[in-house]
Design goal:
Aminopeptidase; about 350 residues; 6-stranded mixed β-sheet; alpha+beta
């Protein structure tokens, strides 16, 4: 007798059909398997390769877009935006950048660089040193004889300033950054301000007004941790009379401000954010210029970011206890022993010899 394909289905015959227990269980299993969805088929290797290729393409396009944005921003503040070479170093793996600070256009002696600092980066150990040179240091300026070092820029521009500093410290100067008051103020505002721990009250009754250098408004910054915008940070870094500690105290605070700004500029949230980079360069457009190219600035930012965990080294050439300078008559400053040998030796070994008592004025 022919049996139905499924014992649970009714038969056309009037004669009732009773399945065996095994047939009944098997029939239930068949029905459940019909309801149960089939397991998903694994993606073929070809599909995975296609997904990987598209992902890589998107990442490459995003990287190219970032480079285009970065190059466009660098072009606004660089004399060599299309220089695609890597960061230059000396035989010890050090990159030296000369920072020159001068007054805004129309300011008295606007081409004199009253701020002269070398930022030295050890690209191998990822350490940073800041070396401040007082404006009144008497040196030999190529083609002009002995003169104050701050006049080199006024006499022959940044190239002469770079050569003069290089000769004085006996190190190569690979790049420069030149800024004025507006550039520093704009940079601090662009990074959202800085948090400064003021060690002692800074009172300068002769400090000029922010909007008129020929009027006196005075300055009073009390001690304690405080958030400073660009204007306040400029006052903090610029004052040198009263209790501000003359040129040496000013140089020490300038190093502090630059270090705080550098820390914010090299945060990943700034480095990889085109909007923030655009805001920074927009703020600097009228107040800062450099000869570093796009690739060099990006590499510098990455190396500086890697150096955040290492304590920076500070050197301020001064007449303080254990310092390297003495008064040479009038406002001139000269080396203690009459030569630059001790200064050059300290600069050469700044990463191999621990911070010394004479590095920062007391």
């Amino acid at each position: 007798m022919e049996q139905p394909s499924n014992p649970l289905e009714s038969r056309s015959s009037d004669r009732p059909y009773m399945p065996t227990p095994d047939q009944f269980v098997n029939a239930l299993d068949d029905r459940e398997s019909e309801k149960r969805p089939s397991p998903p088929r694994p993606k073929s290797p070809r599909n995975w390769r296609r997904i990987i290729r598209w992902t890589l393409l998107v990442l490459v396009l995003a990287g190219l877009a970032y480079v285009v944005v970065l190059a466009n921003n660098v072009a606004k503040i660089s004399t060599k935006p299309l220089d695609l070479t890597g960061l230059a170093t000396d035989s010890d793996g050090r990159t030296n950048i000369l920072v020159l600070g001068k007054g805004d256009p129309g300011h008295a002696g606007q081409d004199l660089t009253d701020t002269i600092m070398v930022i030295s980066l050890d690209t191998r150990t990822k350490r940073v040193a800041q070396i401040s040179i007082p404006r009144d240091l008497r040196v030999k300026i190529p083609g002009y004889g002995a003169n104050k070092i701050n006049s080199a820029n006024a006499l022959g521009g940044v190239d002469l300033a770079k050569q003069t500093v290089s000769n004085t410290l006996d190190i190569p100067v690979h790049y420069y950054v030149e800024t004025n008051f507006s550039g520093l103020r704009g940079l601090v505002d662009a990074v959202g301000g800085i948090d400064v721990d003021v060690k002692a009250a800074l009172v300068d009754s002769e400090y000029p007004c922010d909007d008129n250098q020929y009027k006196v408004c005075g300055l009073n910054i009390q001690p304690g941790l405080q958030h400073m915008d660009g204007t306040k940070a400029l006052q903090y870094a610029r004052c040198r009379k009263g209790t501000c500690g003359n040129d040496f105290g000013r140089a020490e605070r300038q190093q502090e401000v630059i270090g705080l700004v550098r820390a914010k500029l090299t945060q990943w949230g700034t480095i990889i954010n085109p909007a923030k980079l655009t805001a920074v360069t927009a703020a600097l457009r009228d107040g800062l210029i450099t000869d570093m190219g796009t690739v060099q600035m990006l590499q510098l930012a990455l190396d500086w970011q890697a150096a955040q965990n290492n304590q920076p080294i500070h050197l301020v050439l001064s007449t303080g206890t254990g310092g390297y300078l003495k008064n040479g008559g009038g406002s001139d400053l000269v080396p203690v022993d009459g030569t630059f040998d001790a200064i050059d030796n300290r600069v050469h070994n700044i990463f191999s010899v621990p911070q010394q008592s004479g590095d920062v004025p007391e």
